[in-house]
Write a structure and sequence with these properties.
TIM Barrel; homodimer; about 15% strand; 10 helices; alpha/beta
């Protein structure tokens, strides 16, 4: 088995549970923006989770959805988008850069989910290359990237798309000398196979979500039928398992530990849920509120980084 | 009457209510730190409220209380302070700079009030000169300073202290060429007299809090007996009135408006209270959660800065 030192950034341990900033720190700063990423690093978070989609001219850009979210994007005139069907893959980088992604429409459902998120003006959709340049700054030399590749499974040409996306992403990461600080992360497990083929030097991280409620399907579709998730991930060649936090059980955690797979749960924002994950002993917590998780860890005498000394807690 | 252009930064208007970051953005970042100040400016807040106390060697430093707050200060070994009676005025700048003021003890009452505040390591108590240097950076050229002078009224030598503190503070502000961007702000109204004597080029801002509940006294003591607060402030020579937000009434707002005094309320953090202040039509809102206030303003088609274009709101 190849050793992947990149995975150490996600492994918990004595007194340590990792904090991973979700799209930066979405509760506080606009998601998937350089401004939000810098904030996340500056508050001492060592690992960043973010999403990569391709522009029509083949540039890996950082944004969550295939379609632009109208309540999170303003046009060149400063007005919220009116249509929900504008695909990132149909726009050139130049067209994408005309959009302002620095704020949420407070009146939208999505906006109401993050009522404390700051509202910026003039924040543009970053390229992957820009984020790589940011983490090359010496003060961010300790930062690890949990790079989620988003694929549009509805596209008939999905295999070619996967191959092209992985090639473009790996090119950028290699060009910036960041393969030793990057893990490739996806719900699209076939894409992670492609990642291993093209970039065997980077670990792969497997996202999953068990079916929940009537009519729900698991993500990726059908995987839970093939065995317990940690086993399936390990057999597939993955180095990390990232389940929806409610899917974690003590048995699965034990299995993952036996397989040497860190368990990193997403996306944990409410105090009770964060506390439950701390008590369960996961390796890492992906959150929109890293400050909140930091504080709940410290309250229990725990830390999130070997770089940060944890003040003693009065017993 | 002298015109004070500095006061324009606090005046509301058509579609505009000012957002003033309280000690930076205490809900999100450690209070009264350069890290928190930079965050506040970077999210588009134009006015910073902060507190100045004197070190034993006569340096104006930025911290809220005369005594160091044990749950917000760690010693050189990274442990929370154990004593509540350590006065800033008894420590030299060098001694103060050995302390870490970048986090709250989650288990303390004060820590519990700000559960989302990020936890930094190695943040030191800033000097006023450092903040002045920060706002001299070109990207912060629009930032205004609401500089609160804290005096220890229990000191028998209070008159000499006031005079020395005002002299030191004014020296620093003048040396950085920031008198046109600074308002001097205090609960100690006698100190504001001294400010006007020593620095007639800067406006004075009057903090007040009416007595609330049994046995409470108003701050400053006894002022409400001398007439309505806006009148008293205007007669004293003040350019701004900063009441506790629950003290505001439509009548007092009208009076202040007739006297051309902006009304800036503190410290408004809960959604219902923020909405009440927006509906009351105050000029400015001092808050620990500037992102939250930004979003509540935008939801109503309002903005907080002439520099930020407000996206249209669907009716």
């Amino acid at each position: 088995m190849t050793a992947f030192p990149q995975v150490d950034a996600y492994r918990g341990g004595a007194g340590l549970i990792r904090v991973i900033g979700h799209r930066g720190a979405r509760g506080v700063m606009p998601e998937n923006t350089l401004e939000g990423f810098r904030f996340t690093f500056d508050i001492g978070v060592d690992v960043l989770e973010f999403d990569v989609v391709m522009s029509s001219d083949g540039v890996p850009v950082i944004t969550h959805n295939h379609a632009l979210l109208p309540s999170a994007v303003r046009d060149g005139q400063g007005a919220w988008l009116q249509r929900e069907d504008i695909k990132v893959a149909d726009l050139t980088l130049k067209e994408l850069r005309d959009l302002d992604v620095g704020g949420l429409d407070s009146r939208s459902d999505y906006g109401r989910r993050f009522p404390d998120q700051a509202f910026l003006s003039g924040a543009v959709m970053p390229t992957l290359a820009e984020l790589c340049a940011l983490v090359q700054e010496p003060q961010y030399a300790h930062v690890s990237l949990l790079l989620e590749l988003k694929t549009d499974l509805s596209d008939p040409d999905i295999d070619a798309l996967r191959s092209a996306q992985v090639a473009a992403v790996v090119d950028v990461v290699r060009a910036h000398g960041l393969t030793e600080r990057t893990a490739l992360h996806s719900f699209d497990w076939a894409l992670l196979d492609e990642c291993r083929r093209q970039a065997p030097e980077m670990p792969t991280s497997y996202l999953s979500e068990a079916p929940r409620g009537e009519g729900a399907s698991c993500q990726p579709d059908g995987v839970t039928k093939a065995g317990s998730l940690p086993e399936v991930v390990a057999k597939a060649g993955g180095q990390m398992w990232c389940p929806w936090f409610e899917d974690v059980t003590p048995e699965l955690l034990d299995e993952a530990r036996a397989l040497s797979l860190p368990v990193v749960v997403w996306t944990v924002n409410e105090v009770d849920d964060i506390v439950a994950m701390i008590e369960a002993g996961v390796d890492g917590i992906v959150t929109d509120y890293p400050g909140r998780v930091q504080r709940l860890l410290l309250e229990r005498g725990l830390g999130w980084s070997a770089r940060v000394s944890t003040p003693p807690v009065a017993v």
